[in-house]
Design a protein that fits this description.
This protein has 145 residues and is mostly beta strands. The chain has a seven-stranded antiparallel sheet, covered by helices on one side. The N terminus is likely disordered.
């Protein structure tokens, strides 16, 4: 396992699974209801909120995957890597980088609390030079069963 993945695993574990220090950021593993929408420039008033239920379980996630998945039917990031992960005052951020000419990329910023989160994921569709933003609001419902 390379150093970048070890550092990312530590950051995600500290931010999402909880740490020994009560002042650290925490997002409990569990079942989350996420309201999300995909916003396109100049068309934000027409964006439609959708709802998904996801299980966040950091112990079972692969290190290269985003800790909270993109939900707007955007599978262009399936083979991409997380880079530039950073802890912030009330959350964390990271970039999603894909390889190849004209590849898609994204920047994700999360504000987290113990049982809820908000995020903005700015997505650029590679060669199309089209930018959109997935906005998410999630709240914990309980345990994943």
């Amino acid at each position: 396992m390379n150093d970048r993945r070890v550092a990312l695993a530590f950051l995600i574990a500290a931010s999402l699974s909880g740490a020994a220090n009560a002042e650290d950021l925490r997002l409990e593993d569990g079942l989350y209801e996420v309201i999300y929408r995909l916003e396109l420039p100049h068309l934000e008033p027409h964006a439609v909120d959708r709802t998904a239920t996801i299980c966040i379980d950091q112990d079972n996630r692969e290190l290269h995957l985003p800790p909270i998945p993109l939900l707007s039917q955007n599978d262009v990031f399936a083979d991409c890597q997380i880079e530039n992960a950073a802890e912030e005052t009330d959350g964390f951020s990271y970039d999603i980088a894909c390889t190849g000419r004209g590849a898609a990329r994204a920047t994700a910023t999360y504000a987290i609390d113990a049982d809820r989160f908000k995020s903005r994921i700015t997505i650029t569709q590679g060669a199309k030079n089209m930018t959109m933003t997935e906005v998410q609001r999630g709240r914990r419902l309980g345990r994943c069963d």
